[in-house]
Structure formats: structure tokens, C-alpha cells
Write a structure and sequence with these properties.
heterodimer, A: 97 residues, mainly beta, 4-stranded antiparallel beta sheet, two-stranded antiparallel sheet, B: 1004 residues, alpha+beta, Ubiquitin-like (UB roll), FAD/NAD(P)-binding domain, 7-stranded mixed beta sheet, 23 helices, 49 strands
């Protein structure tokens, strides 16, 4: 059960939030410009990284606001929280075997 | 009754009071301060249970949560708990406990035949013996399960009350022994908010069983008392006894299980208190002072009643004032084991001998034993035990030079108690759950936490493999100081409490004690007593090729009982390592999973039972439905009127009457549960244009439109009618069940993809009540209640008007889900019931008929209107539904690109069709699979399934909707629905619209 610092409400328990998958996957401006493979990649493929991962969360049982989280998927340490639309912070990569 | 086991003095029991309890139907007595186990021992009850698989007689082995054998059923059904450890059950007046897994009785157990047949029950017998015939497995399993079971689940509803609570603290200390107390004290003095959780009823940990120890020159228990007093006086400290920290989750979230009133007689349990309480603690820092558990030795006959951990024997003497036997033998591999021999000697118990695996026994306690004249058999092993329901003697024999076999003839030692010590296992369970890593320490033969573990958690005392009392106190204090400093608190240095003490070394490690016969012959050497797993079972698993300890565990079930291998796991790993010729740490440990000890389901539920389990949402008109005898159905959390039976009507008669009334006169339905989202902002039209498949920019104010919403994968997600209330304002309706998910979907796109759009969403589902009037007289009825011009020209289909209805401010929308001319009257919730009742009065002369969700389903199916979640299941596209007409070709929308994927365009996808049965009276079962070619028996090629099916009184025959492969091109073809009873229903593919295909009635 993670402790997530909602940028609008403060630290709250994970059960108040919903997970939104990988962050920074932009919807293509012109979907028709993509071939089927590219479109499927946008639709279905997300990273599953061991280490620092940039992901989206929404405070669904709170303020209903979306935001981005940088989290170590091995240790579950939350390394950064930043607003939607902001560039991801530059964090040192963590290398796990 | 024999009282010779109760010592005349000593222990933390109150001899001035006698309390009575029953075990196995027999009335016995004990004293306040006793555990059920100590009271049983005091009464000479040495046989307390039967084993899981072989029904072997078993006795009490431990004095704590690691107890594998003395599992009891406490209380009377339904207020009963199975599988409680007698060692942890506090005695109270009137306690009722039963042994488990014994039939017909503890003394004469029929299942003991399992023991005689044990060669047919080796490890993995489940997987081998009962593989054929496959169908009979369920029968086998039932018989085996009932023969090899644990306690019985209550048959009735739990009459007790439970609570759940959240707590936040600076420091959570788990364990109220010397290390935990020292940590809590120093942190509390620094001003930290501290929670101290101790599973026992008393603080003190090991000190309760070694009251002769001294701390700062005073009796150790005086120090404990002073520490408890100081902590309880500190306003920011919460001391929780009888509280088991059973699970450690991410970010220092620790779950505690507090037994609040379990220790009290039924009539003394305060009504205001719950029976148990679940604490969900979020701690900034955690100190684990969880101690260590003594490790048994694995030798032939080590499960006989009368075989007990050495430290447990000490506990019974020192804490409970009970001699756990009359004549004892100590079997040890370390110096620390001698403590028990000395304690029992002091209590007047005869010590027949000490069997010591070490070649040259030494150490301070060994020397003390020698001085007391104890007979020590050095380099000896216990190779067998005797006695049916109680130990009568053990055989000891000299080890060979390499210690791997027996060299001399066994000699028999008479005894009724065999105390066993094989070293200590640090209790690293919670640390491992916290993702801490452990490392093997060869010198103490134990897994201990690695230094520099996860953030915010540290360990102190015996869990670190640190055993001398003074060192435990110092480690505890250091952990408390470090935690407080990490939290930014100022700590004044002070000396740690001082105490003498030593560890249990030197020792000689031996995970499987050799015997006179090869392993598996001449007696069973148990590794896991609770699951009846022997050393021979482990070796069998290795012979059969299992190598990973996780596989060996699953194949043999070692460590998979309710005790989770607290006693057996390290021995199992040691035996596997020796056999594989690997260093023990290379074999590794199995995963430590919550709970540390079992937790009652009731505690997890707390008050969330019955009406509080899930919110029940009622519409403002609900009370009318109740008064009118409606049958209800749940739609999500909503309670909706299903149908309104008149006297003598079943569901079919009632629904047939309701649907006929809507077509012939006027029906009234409570549609308040539909999701309603208020959408405002200058970009609202653009937003709708992106989330719906059809065009929205040209919708005029005062008009409404049906919209279909897709996921980005092109699958139908929701539908509903959205009305334009003003230049920049819309009211969207969603299906009842999807209101929240649609709101979430819209917010997600607004916030994450289109933040530039100025659009604001508000859920107003509960702010409005919706009364729907439908049928030929709907207009006539409503006209009596409003000045709004309802004529078809003034208020045509899909238009809305605002005014007053029955005196309430109302928005009237011409929208229909029945195919009849219909008016949806939306009023603020508080007016809902009054407007409904006014409609009923006004409609009485016209035969107004309330109809429920079932009639609504029939009416819409007659029209071929889909229901999201019934005709769709997340894999259905608008093209599959024949709704290409609603897909805009001139704009982008969510899901549009996906509809061009080749798979979506295949002609053999399942498509929506209507079905007419050969016999018009036959109603297809919903969910029935459809085939083109009938065969005598399955398998048959399935081409689709029925999604909706009803009898339609308006059509005079049954109707059904179905998804059929390539169905749109197969109109007129015949399909069959094979039934379970061997019958079949023939039906013809048709259009999904069965009634008024031109829609004339709709626009009337």
C-alpha cells in the first residue's frame, strides 16, 4: 500500500488513487498518419521497466486530479511527483539485474 | 484430577483465584495468568490433538505463536474460532475448547489407521495416488479433506462485532520485549508519537520466562513494569498488547490485529468494545524487535506428546508455575539449551540426563549443569522415542566420528518430557515482508537481516541474531535513538539499561539427527509437525528431481500449515542443503508472506457487514416503490424497481401487463438512476465532438441527441442522450451502471490529453429525479400538470422545454427508450416523489401503469435498442451492432482510428441480429450458445450467443437479440440453441427491430 503525495491534497493512502499506466504517451495528432502497427503500439504497448518508471495516477477518491509519478518499480520508492503536461524530471537511472 | 504438575510457587499466575474451563468436554481448573496450554499441562493433559495427515497423538511443543500441534477450537458455534494455538489462548472462566481433527475422540481416533497406512501417504500423494479416474477426484478429495482437516468453520453468522481503524505514528515498535521497550522508551522521551505492539497479553517478551534476570541491578520484571508505566503515561504513546503485527506492506504500512475482549469471560466483555480490532498503521519509522524462535531438532519419534522446546519448558516453569513433566531429558546441540534443565531442576523436576550432540560440551550453562551433577551424554543423539499417548522413554546412542551415523548401542532413558533445543531462528518474517534482505550467519546458524535494508525500518535484538540481554537492550535503545534522529528530533544521550547475559553458543549444527536405521525407516522424523512432513518426505522430493526450495515446499507442503513453518523451515532448508551438498544459503529461503499468524475474517471486515457492506443507493421515489410492493433488482449500487406484481401475479404476468399498458395506454417509470453529467464551458461542443462518434457542433440549444462513446480501442463503452441546455452548457446522460466510469473517462481525456479545452464536468446524478411517462396517453396525462406546450410541433422528439410540472421547476425532454412517445420529467430530487405521485393521480383515468426495469428491457428489445453490458461486452464495435449510421466520417473521435483495423472490418465478426424461435411461445435462455450444425453431443461449432431474450406480448411471440458471426448477412438462416437437457431450440435470424420499425409511434 503506497503512500502517495497528491499534489493537491497531500499524502494519502494508495487506496484513494487509481493507476493510469505509463506517462508521456501522447495521442498522435493525426491518427490516420499511423499504420496499423504504429497505432497498435500506441494503443496497447506500455513499458514494464525494472527501475525508474514514469507513470500516471489519479486521486479518484479525492480531488479527481491526474498527475505524474516517477517510481522505482522494484523498491516502490516514489522519486518525484509532477503535474500533467510537465516534462519528466531528470533522475538517475537505477540498474537492477 | 492431578495437581502434581502445578508448582507451589513462582510464575505470573494468581493462585488466589481458581477459574474453570472445559477441554474436550472435561471440566478443568486453572488460574488467572494461565494460557490454555499451561492450564492443560497443569492438569496433566499431555495429549491435546491429532496430527493433520496421520492422526498421530500430539502434545504441546511450544509456549508461543509457533505452536504446530496444540490447535484448538474455542467457543461454541457460531461464536467459535478454529485453529487457535492453545499456547496463545488466555484462560478465562467458562472457556470452552475442543481438540481438532480427532474422531470419534481424542483418545480413540479412527483416523489413526492413516498412520498405519502411512507408506501410502508419502509427499506428493495428492498428485500421484488419485490421478485416475479424473472424475473421481472430487470424491477422493472430500474424503481425504474430512479425514485430514483442521478446525471447523462456524456454521452460522458471526455474532461478534469487529472494528477497523487507521493510525499514524512517528515510530511503530513491533515487539514488547527488552529491545522493543528500550526503543520505545528512548523515542517517547524524545517526543515521538510511538505505537508499541506486543502480541502477548503482557510486555516483557523473554523476560516473562526468565524473571531471575536483572536490569540495572533490579529484577528484570520491575524494569519492565517501570517501562510500561512510563510509556502508558506518555500522552503520545499508545501501548497495544494482545496485538499481533501480522503484515508489513509498502511504505511502512503495517497491519495489526488486536484481540480486545477475547480474554474475558462472555459476561464481562464490555458491550461498547469490539471483540477484535484491525489497525492499519502508517509509520514514519518502524523498529522490529520481533525476537527469535527456538529451533527444534529433527530426529526419529520427535513428535511424541512430551517432546517440547527447551525454552517452552522454561516458560511453563518460570512464567506459568507449571512443571511440564515429572522426569525430563534434555536433548540439545547448544549451551543455551541447558537453561531449561537448570530451570526444571530448580523447580524440583528430575533430570534423567542431558543428551548433547556436541563432542565436548562447554559453555557457562553447561558448566553450571556439570556443577549441579547432571548426567551429560556427550556426542550422543536421541535415536528413538517410546510411548503411545505420552512419552515413556527415549533411546540415546553415541554418534560416529564424523557425526553422520550412530556408532554405539542405544541406551534407554525413562522420561515423560524431552526438552529439545536446536538453536534459534530470528523472527525475520516482517522484515522480509518489508522487502528487507536476509543473510545467513554461520556462527549462530540463522538468517538475520542484512544491514542497510529498506528505508524507515530497522531491527533490534534477537531478530538480528543478538541474544545476550544487555546487547538486546543496547540495540533497542540505539534503534530508538536512530529513528528519533531520522525524524529530526533531538535526543539526549543516555546510557542503555545494563544487564548481564550470554548467548547460546557454543553449538554443533545438525539439521537431521542420524538414527540407527536409514531415514524413513524405523520411525518418522518430523520437520513440519503441523503438516506431517518428515525428513524422508523431503529426501523423496529431492530424489524425484525437485531442486528449488520453493518446489520442495509445494511438493511436500512443508511450511504450508497455519504456522507457516515457524519451527520447521530452517531445518527443512538445512536438510535439503546437506543432501544436495550445497551451502545452506545457496538453497535459500521460501517467501515470507502475511499473515504472520492467522487473523479472523471478521477483523478484516470490521463494521463493513450487512447494510454497511456496500452503499445502497435509493432514488427519491424509492419509498413509493416499496409501498407499492415492487420487486427490486440491484443495478450497480442502485436499487431499482424490477416489476410491480399485483396480487396473484408472477414476474411474467406482471411484466406482460406492464409492457402492454405502455403500448396501449401510458406507463410511468423511475429513471432517476441514469447518470447525469453537467458539462459547461466554451469548448463543451468541441469536447462532445471528440468523445462521441457522431457530430455535436450543430446541435441547437433546446435539442437533444443520442450519442455513442467508444474506447480508444474502438469498442463500445457507453451510450446516452445529451441535451444542449444553453450556448455553453450540456447535460449528458449515461447508463446507470457506467455513470462513474464515464465521468472518469471524460476527466481523464480532459486533464491528460486536452488540457487546452475549457470544459468543466460536474456529476449531477443525485441532484435530479427523473420520471418517465411513455405511451399513447403520456401527453394527455402530463398536459394536466404543466403549462409547457407539449404538442408534437412545439416539443418534437429529441427536444426539451423548461417550465413547471406539478408546481416543481422541471425540464421536460422528449426522449424514448420504449419506442413510444415519451416525456422525461427532470426535477430537483426533493420534488421527485411529489411529481411522481401527481403523475399517478393525473394518469389514473387513463390506466397509468408503473413499470419496472424488466418491462423496460422488453420494450426496448422490441425496438432493437441495445443495452450497454448486455448486447456489448467490451469486444463489440458499433459496426458489429449495425450502428454505422452514428459514425461521423468528417471528424476525429476517440476510437475512430481503431475501427479501421483489419480485424474490426472482418465480415465474420459477431454481429447483432434478431432471433425468432420456431415455436413462437418458446423463450430462448439468455446466454445460450448458437450453432449452425447440430450434432448428437458436444463439441459443436458455436457461431454466437443470445444476449437478450423475452416474451413480447405486443408482438405475440418471443423475441431475442443475439451476436452471431457474420449475422448481418445471414438473415433468414436457421440456427439452433442446444440445451443442457439434450433438447434444442430452432430459431431464424431476423432484423433486431421487432416492433414499429418505421418509428411512427415514437414521433407521435
Amino acid at each position: 500500500m503506497l503512500l502517495i503525495e497528491c499534489p493537491y491534497c497531500g499524502p494519502r493512502s494508495e487506496e484513494e488513487f487509481s493507476y493510469g499506466g505509463e506517462a508521456h504517451i501522447l495521442r498522435p495528432a493525426d491518427p490516420d498518419a499511423l499504420n496499423d502497427e504504429q497505432w497498435a503500439d500506441y494503443l496497447f504497448m506500455q513499458g514494464n521497466k525494472k527501475g525508474v518508471f514514469y507513470e500516471r495516477w489519479v486521486h479518484s477518491h479525492g480531488c479527481r486530479r491526474w498527475f505524474n509519478v516517477a517510481r522505482d518499480t522494484l523498491t516502490y520508492e516514489i522519486l518525484a511527483i509532477y503535474p500533467m503536461g510537465a516534462a519528466p524530471p531528470k533522475l538517475d537511472e537505477r540498474h537492477y539485474v | 484430577m492431578t495437581r502434581k504438575y502445578r508448582l507451589a510457587e513462582g510464575g505470573l499466575i494468581d493462585r488466589s483465584k481458581t477459574i474453570s474451563f472445559t477441554f474436550n468436554g472435561e471440566r478443568l481448573t486453572g488460574h488467572p495468568g494461565d494460557s490454555l496450554a499451561s492450564a492443560l499441562l497443569a492438569n496433566g493433559k499431555r495429549l491435546v490433538g491429532r496430527s493433520f495427515k496421520y492422526h498421530r497423538p500430539r502434545g504441546i511443543v511450544t509456549a508461543g505463536p509457533e505452536e504446530p500441534n496444540a490447535l484448538v477450537q474455542v467457543g461454541r458455534d457460531p461464536a467459535t474460532d478454529p485453529n487457535l494455538r492453545a499456547t496463545q489462548v488466555e484462560l478465562f472462566d467458562g472457556l470452552t475448547a475442543m481438540p481438532q481433527n480427532a474422531w470419534p475422540s481424542l483418545e480413540h481416533d479412527v483416523g489413526e489407521v492413516n498412520s498405519a497406512l502411512s507408506r501410502f501417504f508419502p509427499a506428493g500423494f495428492y498428485y500421484k495416488t488419485f490421478m485416475w479416474p479424473a472424475g473421481a477426484w472430487e470424491t477422493y478429495e472430500e474424503v481425504i479433506r474430512s479425514a485430514a482437516g483442521l478446525g471447523k468453520a462456524p456454521t452460522g453468522k458471526d455474532p461478534d462485532r469487529y472494528d477497523k481503524t487507521y493510525a499514524h505514528c512517528d515510530l511503530l515498535v513491533v515487539g514488547g520485549g527488552p529491545a522493543g521497550l528500550a526503543a520505545a522508551l528512548v523515542a517517547a522521551r524524545a517526543g515521538a508519537r510511538v505505537i508499541l505492539a506486543e502480541q502477548d497479553s503482557r510486555l516483557g517478551g523473554r523476560l516473562l520466562s526468565e524473571p531471575q534476570s536483572e536490569i540495572d541491578g533490579k529484577p528484570a520484571l520491575d524494569w519492565v513494569e517501570a517501562a510500561e508505566e512510563e510509556l502508558r503515561q506518555s500522552p503520545e504513546v499508545r501501548v497495544l498488547t494482545r496485538t499481533n503485527a501480522f503484515a508489513y506492506f509498502d511504505h511502512n504500512f503495517v497491519a495489526l490485529h488486536e484481540q480486545v475482549t477475547d480474554h474475558l469471560p462472555a459476561d464481562e466483555r464490555p458491550v461498547e468494545l469490539p471483540r477484535q480490532r484491525l489497525w492499519k498503521v502508517r509509520a514514519k519509522q518502524v523498529v522490529l524487535a520481533t525476537g527469535a524462535i527456538e529451533r527444534p531438532l529433527v530426529f526419529c519419534g520427535n513428535d511424541r506428546p512430551g517432546v517440547m522446546l527447551a525454552s517452552a519448558a522454561s516458560s511453563y516453569v518460570k512464567r506459568y508455575g507449571v512443571a511440564p513433566g515429572e522426569r525430563a531429558v534434555l536433548f540439545t546441540n547448544n549451551d543455551g539449551g541447558y537453561r531449561a534443565a537448570l530451570d526444571l531442576l530448580d523447580a524440583g523436576v528430575r533430570i534423567a540426563a542431558v543428551v548433547d550432540l556436541r563432542e565436548e560440551p562447554s559453555g557457562p550453562l553447561t558448566e553450571a549443569a556439570k556443577e549441579r551433577g547432571l548426567r551429560i551424554l556427550a556426542n550422543y543423539a536421541v535415536v528413538a522415542t517410546k510411548g503411545r499417548k505420552l512419552l515413556t522413554s527415549v533411546s540415546a546412542a553415541r554418534l560416529s566420528g564424523d557425526g553422520k551415523s550412530i556408532s554405539g548401542a542405544p541406551q534407554e532413558l525413562e522420561c515423560d518430557l524431552l526438552m529439545v533445543s536446536g538453536g534459534w531462528n530470528p523472527t525475520v518474517h516482517l522484515y522480509c515482508q518489508a522487502k528487507g534482505k536476509i543473510t545467513w550467519r554461520e556462527d549462530i546458524a540463522g538468517f538475520v537481516p542484512e544491514t542497510g535494508g529498506p528505508k524507515g525500518v530497522s531491527c533490534a535484538g534477537a531478530v538480528n541474531g543478538v541474544y545476550p540481554l544487555g546487547d538486546c537492550l543496547r540495540e533497542g535503545q540505539q534503534a530508538g535513538v536512530a529513528a528519533a534522529r531520522t525524524l529530526g528530533m533531538e535526543v539526549t544521550e543516555s546510557a542503555a539499561p545494563q544487564a548481564e547475559g550470554q548467548d547460546f553458543l557454543p553449538a554443533r549444527w545438525m539439521y537431521l539427527v542420524p538414527s540407527t536405521a536409514p531415514t524413513g525407516h524405523g520411525g518418522k522424523a518430523f520437520v513440519d509437525q503441523q503438516n506431517d512432513v518428515t525428513a524422508a518426505d523431503l529426501l523423496l522430493a529431492l530424489r524425484e528431481g525437485y531442486r528449488s526450495i520453493e518446489h520442495v515446499k509445494r511438493y511436500t507442503t512443508t511450511g504450508m500449515g497455519t504456522d507457516q513453518g515457524k519451527l520447521g523451515n530452517v531445518n527443512a532448508i538445512g536438510i535439503v542443503a546437506e543432501h544436495l551438498g550445497k551451502p545452506l544459503p545457496e538453497v535459500g529461503v521460501t517467501t515470507f508472506r502475511p499473515p504472520y499468524t492467522p487473523v479472523t475474517f471478521g477483523a478484516f471486515m470490521g463494521r463493513d457487514v450487512d447494510a454497511l457492506l456496500d452503499p445502497l443507493r435509493k432514488t427519491p421515489i424509492d419509498s413509493w416503490h416499496v409501498r407499492s410492493g415492487a420487486a427490486f433488482e440491484d443495478v450497480g449500487q442502485w436499487r431499482r424497481a424490477w416489476y410491480y406484481p399485483k396480487p396473484g401475479e408472477d414476474i411474467h404476468k406482471a411484466v406482460n401487463r406492464e409492457v402492454a399498458a405502455v403500448r396501449q395506454a401510458v406507463g410511468i417509470m423511475d429513471a432517476s438512476t441514469l447518470g447525469k453529467i453537467d458539462i459547461q464551458g466554451p469548448d463543451a461542443a468541441e469536447f462532445l465532438n471528440r468523445v462521441y462518434t457522431n457530430a455535436w457542433k450543430k446541435l441547437a440549444v433546446g435539442k437533444a441527441r443520442y450519442g455513442l462513446m467508444l474506447g480508444e480501442d474502438g469498442m463500445v463503452m457507453d451510450d446516452g442522450v445529451t441535451a444542449r441546455l444553453g450556448e455553453n452548457r450540456y447535460l449528458m446522460t449515461t447508463t446507470t451502471g457506467n455513470a462513474a466510469s464515464v465521468m472518469g473517462h471524460l476527466e481523464e481525456w480532459l486533464q491528460t490529453e486536452w488540457p487546452e479545452l475549457k470544459v468543466y464536468l460536474t456529476s449531477v446524478t443525485e441532484q435530479f429525479a427523473t420520471v418517465s411517462l411513455a405511451g399513447p396517453y403520456a401527453r394527455t396525462v402530463l398536459a394536466q400538470l404543466t403549462d409547457i406546450d407539449l404538442s408534437p410541433n412545439a416539443l418534437p422528439h429529441m427536444c426539451l422545454s423548461e417550465g413547471e410540472v406539478a408546481g416543481a421547476p422541471a425540464r421536460v425532454v422528449r426522449v424514448s427508450f420504449t419506442g413510444e412517445a415519451a416525456f422525461e420529467i427532470n426535477v430537483p430530487s426533493s420534488y421527485g416523489l411529489a411529481v411522481w405521485e401527481a403523475c399517478m393521480r393525473a394518469g389514473e383515468p387513463y390506466g397509468i401503469t408503473p413499470y419496472g426495469t424488466e418491462a423496460m428491457h422488453v420494450l426496448r428489445a422490441e425496438k432493437g435498442y441495445i443495452i450497454i453490458g448486455q448486447e456489448t461486452d467490451g469486444s463489440v464495435t458499433p459496426i458489429d451492432l449495425g450502428m454505422d449510421w452514428i459514425l461521423s466520417k468528417t471528424k476525429d473521435y476517440i476510437g475512430r482510428r481503431s475501427l479501421k483495423r483489419p480485424d474490426i472490418l472482418k465480415s465474420d465478426r459477431k454481429q447483432l441480429v434478431g432471433l425468432l424461435t420456431e415455436n413462437p411461445q418458446t423463450v430462448l435462455p439468455e446466454g445460450a450458445q448458437l450453432v449452425e450444425e447440430l450434432k448428437a453431443t458436444p463439441p459443436m461449432t458455436m457461431v454466437g450467443h443470445v444476449t437478450s431474450s423475452y416474451y413480447s406480448p405486443n408482438c405475440g411471440h418471443s423475441i431475442a437479440l443475439a451476436l452471431v458471426k457474420g449475422g448481418q448477412a445471414k438473415q433468414g438462416e436457421t440456427l439452433f440453441a442446444p440445451m443442457l437437457d439434450g433438447g434444442r431450440i430452432a430459431c431464424t435470424i431476423t432484423s433486431p427491430v421487432f416492433f414499429d420499425p418505421e418509428g411512427e409511434r415514437l414521433r407521435a
